[in-house]
Amino acid sequence: MRRLWLLFAQTVTVGLACWFIVITFKPEWVRQRPANLPLTEAPVTLPPGGVMPGSLSPAARAASPAVVSIATRQSIRQRGNDPWHRFFFGDDDEGPRTGLGSGVIVSAEGYVLTNNHVVEGADEIEVTLSDRRRTLAKVIGTDPETDLAILRIRLDRLPVIVWGKEETAQVGDRVLAIGNPFGVGQTVTSGIISALGRNQLGINTFENFIQTDAAINPGNSGGALVDVNGHLLGINTAIYSRSGGNMGIGFAIPVSTARQVLDGIIKDGQVVRGWIGVEPMDITPELAETFKLNQQEGVILTGVLQGGPAAKAGLQPGDVVLRVADQEVDNVSALLTAIASQAPGRSTRIEVLRQKSRLSLEVVPTQRPKPRGVAR
């Protein structure tokens, strides 16, 4: 019996040793092979048109062809051989300056909307379409106070974007930003409308921005902000950033402003706005105390141009403007926009508060003078 037990133990030991050697050096000999059973994959069901539910690709396909890339070139003017200039500013005439931006084709006649800061001072502007066609563009007109510019290109079979309805846009609506960020090529980013009617940002004279969290970066300026149908809602113009890149706060000029500028420049060569010659300021606790005001609403006039339309109508420093025509004004931006929308030469009623008395004055605006420059 003992001999049999020893033989059994030796056999098991040798078997285990062989098994260990095999699984160490030839594991494929003992790997279990799957049975050759037929596999059935879950079918991918696409709705009509081949688009997955919730996809924004139809909007991107509809709008992208009308968004162009813009490259600018500005020659450096020779400033002479003044040694003092070279000492303080160096040799700044060694080569041209270049810039990148985006634009939107809004007319089959070749009109392109973009930002004024994209093309300002450029000696040469080249537009590249999504189908890789390239052509030089001509500046038809600019409006620095809204930071918009109108270019024109001469090509056939131009894709044209569809105008959207800004008045139907709501906070939370999904949007796409299309442009050429950092010059990498046409790029589509998505987000939502974060806010409407943003103003008092100090970017433009007339501000009524659409705020979005869709990624907007340098090079996106002048590109399109579109809705889920691919219709144009705004022209991307600025970002809030501490790093120079996207931080989720971008601003677009709404289509209502863009169309006003486009129509004015094409029709008259400029945007015609009303002007009355006042210096307005938002009411602050300090101003309220200085002028002995009992309210915080409205816009106070700290200055009235002598001989200007406002002075002729009887407006005075210290007046608080409450309404222009039928529009309530509660900040400087709203006041400027309301006055600018009035036709020059046509009487406009302005309601003011003067020493606790409400007055209604008739003012005849004149055409707003051209700005010398707009700080950005």
Features:
Thrombin, subunit H; alpha+beta; 8 helices; elongated; 376 residues; 20% helix; Pdz3 Domain
Description:
The chain is of the alpha+beta class. It has three domains: 64-152, Beta Barrel (Thrombin, subunit H), CATH 2.40.10; 166-268, Trypsin-like serine proteases (Thrombin, subunit H); 274-367, PDZ domain (Pdz3 Domain). Helices cover 20% and strands 31% of the residues. The protein contains eight helices and 21 strands. It has helices at residues 2-25, 57-63, 83-89, 116-119, 255-268, 285-290, 309-313, 332-340; strands at residues 67-74, 97-105, 111-115, 124-128, 134-136, 138-143, 148-152, 174-179, 187-198, 209-212, 224-226, 232-239, 250-254, 274-275, 278-282, 299-304, 320-324, 327-328, 348-354, 357-363, 366-367. A seven-stranded antiparallel beta sheet has the order 5-4-1-2-3-7-6. Strands 8-9-10-13-12-11 form a six-stranded antiparallel barrel. Strands 15, 16, 17, 18, 19 and 20 form a six-stranded antiparallel beta sheet that branches. The longest helix is centred in the N-terminal third of the chain and has 24 residues, at 2-25.
